[in-house]
Design goal:
Blueprint lengths: L4 E11 L5 E12 L2 E6 L2 H14 L8 E4 L3 E5 L1 E6 L15 H13 L4 H17 L2 E7 L3 H11 L2 E6 L2 E4 L2 E4 L1 H11 L2 H4 L1 E7 L9 H12 L2 E6 L3 H11 L3 H7 L7 E5 L5 H8 L3 E5 L1 H6 L7 H6 L3 E4 L12 H16 L7 H16 L15 E5 L11 H8 L5 E6 L2 E5 L2 E2 L4 H15 L4
Helix pairs in contact: 3-4, 3-16, 9-10, 13-14, 13-15, 14-15
Length: about 450
């Protein structure tokens, strides 16, 4: 159930409508139902807004819970722009390998044996980890997405979830329009708008040339966005140049992939022309610093993408390659990699990182009313306790969040006005049951390679 809540005397850190970070000290934020109805410095105005909202709904009594903001920061939940949530089953089991060996020798052979309930419980575990760390939404790319959708709805978690949209039989790959249509009909807008649907086009290297235009036509016909991996490794780029005489971004653009709204994961090895292609389309690039470093894929030129006007968000990638969904670590890494690789401490300041982690990710997923703390926006919020040795003294709250914040500081998480974590406790997931289920399922899956 959604609650009526007044956050009081709290520091608010949020992007504004232009994506610039704003800080409000000793603020009041009123939430009723799934929406924020007041943000400001006056308690009386906040209470009045709650009373007016109650009257407009036909009620005569006003009651609300108060959440003390002493030594707390209120900010939007993070939007994880690229994940493979069920891969949590393979966490810590395929490490210190090249991406190509990791994918083709370990991951793909195991994925052939995944069962529906494996996906469901793994999704609950991954979602629990994300909620614990302040993530309120994820753009997820994996198989049997209906199981992940059911897990997300149970947990009250927001997702842009892509359907495979294709199948393979004895005659080869084929587009699966009926499957995508059914998936969209069942889940798009489910949970009061928690779920958005998209189409998976894994990459430029997994499918035959003739399938790509069919998949694009399928996405257009069903009016869904696309999720795709782009230019993750030098090997991918070299192979694409050999096969098509083009970079992955150019080849995907020529197939029409970027004619649809799109989340393009990685973008580690983009040329200037590639960046121009992405900037000319409704493409959000998901920067995945931890995964890219662990697999030695390289360092994405985020500053270059921003210079071209590309919307850049942050993603964790899957737990088989990260090996966690710690968004605070990914934010810190994103900033430090940019500074260190360019020998420039001014690269990707803390404010830019927070905008990438929140506002940009939600826009890329198609949730236009999330990612900011303002009246009328969805109440997707996290509360960070700064009264810890790692974050004290706060001084600059924006710097504190990016450079010294951590998962352990996330006290509560609200999605669509519902607390899914409250004062340290998950409220929508039976974590002990999920841990027991995923332990035995991980043992089954990891035996295959």
């Amino acid at each position: 159930m959604s609650k009526t809540v007044l956050f009081k005397n709290i520091t608010v850190v949020t992007p504004d409508e232009a994506g610039k970070i704003q800080v409000y000290s000793d603020a009041y934020v009123a939430v009723r139902g799934d929406r924020i109805i007041y943000v400001g410095e006056e308690r009386a105005q906040a209470v009045r807004a709650l009373m007016e909202a109650q009257r407009e709904s036909g009620g005569s009594q006003i009651g609300f819970d108060e959440y003390s903001g002493k030594d707390k920061i209120l900010l939007p939940t993070f939007a994880n722009a690229h994940s493979h949530i069920p891969m949590v089953l393979m966490r810590n089991s395929a490490d210190d390998m090249s991406l190509e060996d990791w994918l083709f020798k370990r991951i793909l052979p195991r994925e052939e044996h995944l069962r529906k309930e494996d996906i469901y419980y793994a999704s609950l575990l991954g979602i629990a980890e994300m909620i614990q760390g302040g993530i309120g939404a994820s753009a997820d790319m994996y198989f049997m997405a209906d199981e992940t959708a059911c897990a997300a709805l149970q947990a009250g978690f927001r997702m842009n979830l892509c359907h495979d949209g294709k199948f393979h039989d004895e005659s080869g790959w084929k587009a699966d329009r009926a499957g995508l249509r059914s998936f969209r009909k069942t889940f798009h807008g489910a949970g009061g708008g928690l779920i958005r649907t998209s189409l998976m086009i894994h990459s430029i290297y997994l499918y035959p040339e003739e399938l790509y235009p069919e998949l694009v036509a399928e996405a257009a016909e069903e009016d869904v966005s696309i999720q795709v991996h782009v230019a993750e490794t030098r090997t991918e780029v070299a192979n694409c140049l050999s096969k098509y005489g083009k970079t992955p971004a150019r080849a995907l653009a020529d197939f029409g992939v970027f004619d649809r709204p799109c989340i393009a994961a990685h973008g580690v090895h983009l040329t200037e022309e590639d960046m121009e292609i992405l900037a000319a389309s409704d493409v959000t690039v998901s920067h995945n610093p931890a995964s890219n470093m662990k697999l030695a894929s390289g360092f994405a030129d985020v500053a270059g993408m921003q210079r071209h006007g590309i919307r850049v968000a942050i993603g964790t990638d899957g737990c088989a390659s990260n090996n966690n969904a710690d968004f605070y670590t990914d934010m810190r890494l994103a900033s430090f990699i940019a500074k260190g690789s360019k020998f420039d401490p001014l690269q990707l300041p803390a404010g830019d990182i927070l905008t990438m982690a929140t506002y940009n990710g939600y826009r890329g997923m198609g949730f236009s009313d999330c990612g900011r703390i303002a009246a009328g926006m969805m109440a997707d919020l996290q509360i960070v306790n700064t009264d810890t040795p790692a974050m004290w003294p706060v001084n600059n709250p924006v710097s504190a969040l990016v450079y010294s914040g951590g998962v352990s500081s996330v006290e509560s998480v609200m999605i669509a006005g519902r607390f899914v974590k409250y004062h340290g406790e998950l409220t929508s997931i039976d974590l002990e049951k999920v841990k027991a289920e995923t332990k035995k399922r991980a043992a089954y899956i990891t035996q295959f390679a």
